[in-house]
Specification:
With 168 residues, this protein is mainly alpha-helical. It has a single domain, classed as Orthogonal Bundle (Tetracycline Repressor, domain 2), CATH 1.10.357. The protein is 76% helix and 0% strand. The chain is built from 8 helices and no strands. α4 runs parallel beside α7, α5 runs parallel beside α8 and α6 packs across α7.
């Protein structure tokens, strides 16, 4: 019987993380105080702290979930076999045109700004997500172009940022 409690607690933690992830994608960090987050979850800020030691832990888990979901979407948009730099970049840019991805990218660039200021958990989260993205891109590039994975990632980030700042 005692084993059911940790499983139930973990399930509730994941539900909270999922709701907070949606909250962050929708509102960004301008409305990310603990009370606002608790309100979006439908519980008190004290109750959230029952499940997470710190707000930073909760944010880090939510950002990790967002990153994994984005990476999974990136994988689905890539061609089956390995491709050239231009083929991979074109596929990723195409997948970045949806409204949902644009909302996540707005949050992503906000996180990068916080990371550049040395703030945690953003610095560690950004480093981890960039590393994972570069690995996924490298895995999809042809053998003779694998060394260009970081270039693809940089071009992708730049194009997506410009698309958000200077819509056509």
């Amino acid at each position: 019987m005692t084993k059911a409690i940790p499983d139930k607690t973990e399930k509730r933690r994941q539900e909270i993380v999922s709701i907070v992830a949606m909250h962050l994608v929708r509102d960004g960090f301008q409305n990310s105080g603990l009370r606002a987050i608790a309100k979006s979850v439908g519980m008190s800020d004290r109750m959230i702290m029952y499940y997470f030691e710190t707000k930073e832990e909760l944010i880090a888990e939510a950002l990790s979930m967002i990153g994994e979901n984005l990476a999974d979407g990136m994988d689905q948009s890539l061609p089956q076999g390995n491709g050239t730099v231009n083929q991979i970049l074109a596929a990723l840019l195409q997948s970045g045109q949806s409204g949902e991805v644009k909302a996540v990218m707005r949050l992503w660039f906000e996180i990068i700004g916080l990371s550049m200021r040395g703030q945690e958990p953003y610095q560690k989260t950004v480093a981890l997500l960039l590393e994972r993205s570069e690995e996924r891109i490298r895995a999809k590039l042809r053998a003779d172009q694998k060394h260009r994975a970081r270039e693809v990632l940089a071009r992708l980030e730049g194009e997506l940022m410009l698309g958000l700042l200077m819509p056509v």
